[in-house]
# Entry
Amino acid sequence: MKIINVCGARPNFMKIAPLMRAFAARPPIEARLVHTGQHYDETMSQAFFDDLHLPRPDINLEVGSASHAVQTALIMQRFEPVLEREHPDAVLVVGDVNSTIACALVAIKLGIPTIHVEAGLRSFDRSMPEEINRLLTDAISELLFVTEPSGVQNLRNEGIAPCRIHLVGNVMIDTLRAHQRLAERSTILRDLGLSSGGYGVLTLHRPANVDEPRVFARICDALVEIQRDLPLVFPVHPRTRGNLERNGLLKRLHDLPGLRLTEPLGYLDFLKLMSSAAIVLTDSGGIQEETTVLGVPCLTLRENTERPITIEQGTNQLVGTDPQRILAGYQRARSATFTPRIPDLWDGHAAERIADIIVRWHAART
Ligand code: UD1
# Structure
């Protein structure tokens, strides 16, 4: 059985890594890796291949950055001949980035079944590009692998046949578990002059937060207060850096003595940084899940989350972008004594479950 596995952007790499390993351990499966090239900087792509020991992609579509329509179209245009040449039995896509929907759409038009890993998550906010990517990818996928019960319910509500939906746990947590010990060896705390538990971590890259100077300025107001109480480290995503420079906000951040800006970090350094932090402030989806498993308090600077289990069982609080709400969330998190629960099936073995289901599914079809 030949599967073409697709990755393209930073959050895809930690999801595809355990799947490639699980496929390699199951001889009926021949797994090929396609990198779309959506992310291409050393720090956004190659560093993750190195840290996660991902095999070199068999094919790189090298699409690079562009508007949503151009990027999606270019991926489709370059992916179609790959499928025509390779004749795979299935295409596997992960997450919710432009590469995910682009490749799923090409596959279904050629009659090739698509497998979606991390299906069913919904923020119910259609202004997020990822929400559109999730809805459309799920609607055309044959097998849907889900991380949390809310995802199963969402898919059922959308009329997807229950036999296509599989609650299997979280492949990103497989990668976290597999690398926790290795990450302990990272020198990042020493390099940045930090002590365990003595700092917070900040990440921001969502268009709604970083493309709109008024919104970002309000977030800055909260950061000014928090960095007086706790030093903050901010690994800056390239699109965030570009926007902050354009809007003249980078200087305001540079002038805060308690806020340290860094380049984007590799997987192991970031895992170490997050694990030892007193708190994480973020607008990322994946980091809400990782902090839940690590037991590190997380403030999500958004009005919604497609990962509600991180609030119900984990360490996550939704605080939006109003400075007063962010500060109130910060105070709550710093004084909390709540013990988080690790969601069911977030046990480090999701990729193995997925691979076994795929093998059975393929056997039943042939
Ligand atoms: C993408 C995903 C988002 C994910 C995020 C993680 C979509 C719609 N969005 O957003 O869901 O959370 O990746 O990072 O797919 N850039 C570089 N170097 C790179 C990559 C990007 O400089 O290697 C810059 C470019 O200016 C580019 C911008 O970042 O235009 C945005 O990159 P893009 O992949 O379009 O979206 P992200 O914001 O990274």
Observations:
- The mean pLDDT is 97.
